[in-house]
Amino acid sequence: MAGNIISLSERGLISVGGSDALKFLQDLVTADMEGLAIGQAAYAGLLTPPGKILYDFFIAREEQGYLIDCVAEQRDELIKRLNFYKLRAKLDIRPDERQTAAALDEPVEGAVRDPRSADMGWRLYGAGVAGDNAVAYHRRRILHGLAEGGHDFRSGELFPHEANFDQIGALSFSKGCFVGQEVVSRIEHRGTARSRILPCRIEGALPAKGAAVEAGSKIIGSVCSGLEDRVLALLRLDRLEEARDGNVPLMAGASRLFPKKPGWARYSVPAFE
Q1: Which numeric CATH code is attached to 194-259?
Q2: What is the mean pLDDT of residues 192-215?
C-alpha cells in the first residue's frame, strides 16, 4: 500500500463543524455543497467580491462535518477569512493536524475520490500518513491540465474560469449566491472567458515559471508550473487560434510549446500537433 501513497506535506487541513456548517459553506464557496455525501469531496474556491480566486481547496464531507484541504501556507489566513464570514453562525472552525496524501492508481481504505478528474485517483486524510514525495502527483496533474493555487496562480490573480473551475465541477451556477457569484455568472453567460490554463508539451528546456508565451511578436500568455517536458500555461484561446491559422509557433524563450485540450474540457483548443 505504501508504494501507492504519495505524501502531500504541502497541504494543510481545516475542520469545519457545527449545525450551520452546510449553510455556511453553501453560501460562501463556489461549488455546490448540498449533494455532498459522507465520503465524498468537492473542489471549490473562496473568491474576492470582484470574483477572483482568493483560495482554492478540496472540501471532504465527514461524519462530524467538513474537512478543508488547502495549501498549507494559506491555512491560517483561510481560517481567519472563514471566521470573518462566520458572524453568529453555529460553527467550529479549527486547524486539523491530520496529514494529506494521494493515491493515484489504487483506492485506499478511507480515501475519497479526487472530484476534478478520475485520472487523479483518491485523496487520503490521516495521522502519520507516509509515502513517496509529491513529484509523481504534480506530474500527473500537469499532464491532465489541473492547476492548483500556490503552484500555478497566486491569491487574487485569476478568475475561476481561467483556472477551469467551470469545467471540473468547482463552480455552480444553479445553487444561488456566493461571494463573487455575480461577476463569474456574468463571465459564464456572456462567454467572455478568453484565457485558460492548458497543459502543454515542451520542446527544449523547461521554461521558468512566469515566462511569457509569445506567438511571433505577441505575448499571448505565461508559463505556470512544469516538470520535465510538460508545463501548464495560461493562454489566450483567441490568440492560439490566430497562431495556429498563421502557422506561428508558440515560444517561451527558446522553448516551443504545444498546447493540448484536456480530456475534461468542453471548450475548443486549436490543435498544434
Answers
A1: 2.40.30
A2: 96
